[in-house]
Amino acid sequence: MNQQEPPRDWFSPPPSQPTEIDDTTYSGPLPPMIPAYIPPLAPPSDVLVWPPPPPPPAPEEDDEGFSTQPFPAIAAGRPLPRPRPSFQDPEPYPPFPDPPPVREEPPPASPEASEPEPERKKKGWGRFFAGAAGSVVLAVGAPAAANWSTYVYGTGEPDIVHVIPAGETYEFEHVAWRSTMERIANPAGAAEKPGRQWMKIVLTRTALDRDGTFLTGVPDVEIRDAAGRKWRTEVLENATPLDPSDDQIGKAFPIEIYAVVPTDVADTAELFIRPLNYRSDTPTEDLTDDLSADLDVLRFLR
């Protein structure tokens, strides 16, 4: 700031600056516009791909640049030279073995000079007895095979049947069993086919002591009639606790079972159960120690 000028703030112009300025906007003609540079267009670079170009002409025999190294001439009838062993070969190639001599077979004799063919032996009693023995083996072996299958799946041994009067409880192997069986309508609500009847079975299990709390296996359940026919059953609910405790002793736990039987045996067919000797406290490595069959069957009369 000039010291001779009076003091002023930063935004005030100095007194020496003119306040009226003429418009200095250019109003003359504009200069000509320079056109932008446009490069020349490149020629098309498309390559013909179809149809394929014709093959080049075959070179003549005396053309330079097409000659190849000639093969060595080998005289006709001479064997090919054997390859020389390289430094990697442990030993030279062995010579080819001589072909085996050709054995000349004598010409076959004429049919007149040939010996007569021996007569075939007639079927004797040996084959007959062999066939009879095979039939006996089949006759005996078939029931044996069936027996073995029965032994595998049901031991084949006679059951020990325990008869229980209707409405009574039976104590067997630390567990008391009781059953009820009654007719019911189709649980699905649909109309049942003629000659079929739904049955509801309630099997009650009660542990009599500490050992009975470990016998938690669901028994095999069947319905049989007087003619020996059997009908399968399905367990719907099982209230037996899997964790044994002393509180379960003397307490009844129901097992709800359903089945379908013919109508004519619905009131006379009886319940058969086969309790299992499986114990829930058996270690895994000892499960195969006791493979004795469960032969005891409880028969509940109606």
Write the layout of secondary structure elements.
Blueprint: H1 125-154, E1 160-164, E2 170-172, E3 175-184, E4 196-207, E5 220-224, E6 230-231, E7 234-238, E8 252-262, E9 270-274, E10 296-300
Parallel strand pairs: 1-10
Antiparallel strand pairs: 2-3, 3-4, 4-8, 5-6, 5-9, 7-8, 9-10
Structure in words:
It comes from Herbidospora galbida. This is DUF4352 domain-containing protein. Strands 1-10-9-5-6 form a 5-stranded mixed sheet, with no helix packed on it. A hairpin with a 5-residue loop joins β5 and β6. It has a domain of 123 residues: Immunoglobulins (Immunoglobulin-like, Sandwich). By secondary structure, the protein is mainly β. The protein contains 1 helix and 10 strands. The protein is 10% helix and 21% strand.
Low-confidence stretches: 142-153
The CATH architecture name of the domain at 166-280 and 293-300 reads: Sandwich
What are the secondary-structure elements, in order, as H or E? HEEEEEEEEEE
Distance between the termini: 130 Å
Please compute the radius of gyration using only Cα atoms.
56 Å
Q: What is the overall pLDDT average?
A: 75
Q: Beta-strand level of the residues, as a percent range?
A: 15-25%
What percent of residues adopt helix (DSSP H or I)?
Answer: under 10%
Largest sheet: 5 strands, mixed
Instruction: Kindly name the structural category.
Output: mainly beta
Number of helices: 1
Q: What does the overall shape look like?
A: flat
Strand order of the largest sheet: 1-10-9-5-6
Can you tell me the CATH topology of the domain at 166-280 and 293-300? Immunoglobulin-like
Report the CATH superfamily of the domain at 166-280 and 293-300.
Immunoglobulins
In CATH's first tier, which class of the domain at 166-280 and 293-300 applies?
Answer: Mainly Beta
Count of beta strands: 10
